[in-house]
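Data card: per-record layout.
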Amino acid sequence: MSLISCLFCKIIAKEIPAGIVYEDEKVVAFKDIAPQAPTHILLVPREHARFVEELADKGVVGRIYKIAADLARENKIADSGYRIVVNHGRAAGQAVDHVHFHLLGGRDFSWPPG
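The structure for this 114-residue chain is written out next.
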């Protein structure tokens, strides 16, 4: 997939509007357009990467988890519990080929997922 056609790259570049709730030099977070929970925020690295292992040595994954925890507190879901999900590949449900983390909360979740 080219960066030109990547949906999340277009959101990061502000070519497509999104409900951005956080951004810094490495990460952008925005509300999911098809939320699966009362709080459903996507956290994406600014650098295009298809899978999480492409970011392993860049310090971005830890930063995303810290931002997710901060957003969970801001959205009042930290105390009741929240879930962070990363889908890897189509069979796992990855719909956009730009690695992204789902922050979900505000309702009870079952286990196992899916």
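Known properties of this structure: The two ends are 27 Å apart (CA to CA). The chain has one domain: 3-105.

See the next section for split statistics.
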